[in-house]
């Protein structure tokens, strides 16, 4: 009788263990399936949409957006598209909403002009991150990636003081930014306090006609060195400098190929490197942080091009020495 009871208990215990094992197995299978499903979802190809107001052509601001897209494609497994020639706020808004509603994970506006629209629509698309190159942001799913090339502009200013013969140097800016970017002017005041400095604004990156009108007025006043910051209108400015035997500091890329004897140097902006920085942050453990991120020379976003032949070896050595002193 006692043995029979023991057998019954053993049978009950064995059944309990079997049921427990079955339950644990079922839980494991469910968790595994959930994990697989989650992995499939998280491994979905990231979609990136780039918006630019400009055309995609050589030497244009828009071409840098295109090169940024190529940089992303070469370094990350993502789906990308670019929408260009968005000429007004309505077309920008339509493009941003269309991209967000079609599942873009990240939308990059190529310039501060996208900030206004992104500020308006970002809160309606919480699953999409809106990023602009320069500008401002106000929502948790927005960020601004910017950089301050002031250090390079400072050394370009030193170079300008060494080249000018009339002691008259001008900055032709695309948009008003005199207070924001004072380094070029500061270098002139520090290294050539007797020089005259003029600051004029075109209110466009591409209006070559207005840029030339302003430049011609300055030429009549005797200005002979121009820092021209409109990638779209720089070709016209450099051509005019060649015609008048004056000098230009280029912008965005090395523009010495347009006039080696007249281009002192160029403040180079490697904007496509900013796109790499954005995507590196996006795929990092912490992701993109809302707000403003300031990129530096270490991110490869700016540098000074080679100094031109109008500067003597002594001039070049002087600038190199000032760079060393500046970085200490």
From TrEMBL:
One of its GO terms (cellular component) is plasma membrane. It holds the Pfam family Bmp. Residues 47-326 form the ABC transporter substrate-binding protein PnrA-like domain. InterPro entries: BMP_lipoprotein (IPR050957), Peripla_BP_I (IPR028082), PnrA-like (IPR003760). Keywords: Cell membrane, Lipoprotein, Membrane, Signal, Transmembrane, Transmembrane helix. The chain crosses the membrane at residues 6-30. Belongs to the BMP lipoprotein family. It comes from Mangrovibacillus cuniculi. It is a lipid-anchor. It is found in: Cell membrane. This is BMP family ABC transporter substrate-binding protein. Coiled coil: none annotated.
